[in-house]
Model the fold of this input.
Amino acid sequence: MNVSKTAAPAPASGQIPAQPSGMSVSWQARRRRPGVLALAAALIAAGAVGNYWYWTQNGQRSPVLVMARDVPAGTVIQDADLAEASVALDPALKAIGTGQRAEVVGKRAAVELLPGVLLAPGQITTRTLVRQGEQLVGLNLKPGQMPDSPLKPEDQVQVVFTGDSGATAPGKNGKPGQDGPVTVDARIVRVGSKQDSTGQQVIDVAVTSADGPRLAAQAAAGNVALAVKAAGSGAGS
Done:
């Protein structure tokens, strides 16, 4: 049994095939547009986040001075002691900017300044830490010759002579009429770093010019110990 199939009529020669209606094209364009808009919005958001991150990381950095090498307390600061860095500063942090470099050079370190430390106004001074009529003496002290509590510059102390001659000599600051070892009133100027192996620590103290030579001799022999005076006690009391 033969079944005839009816084929779709072929377009006539030279005739253009039928195109989708204008309504169909417009609907497809509208269907794609929300996806394009979402992508554009995502790119804009990503750019805004990137700009904000760059601004927070770089826009708030300030050029400041940092220490390039160790400067002991009381030492004059040289230009080679300083380096420059760009850091993000907390508003509460007071730092010296690179524009003040010339003003810092020639001043003294009020405290020991270590390499990499951010330089702050309170760490420098124009005054000498050894005052008129004073001498600076270094005490190389072992554990047991000084308190275990932390010491700091401007602490008022007594240096006690522990040698045979010092321990039996009467008087305070060389004055007769008082029993006990000889002591010298002093003011701490610099506290050195404690050695890990021995626990020894160098303490620089300022004493009167009259006491300086005798204290230096006793300190060189290791015949000294340090006692911290009570808060509010003045030197020479």
In short: DSSP finds four helices and nine strands in the chain. The longest strand covers residues 183-191. The two ends are 138 Å apart (CA to CA). Residues 110 and 205 are 14 Å apart (CA to CA).
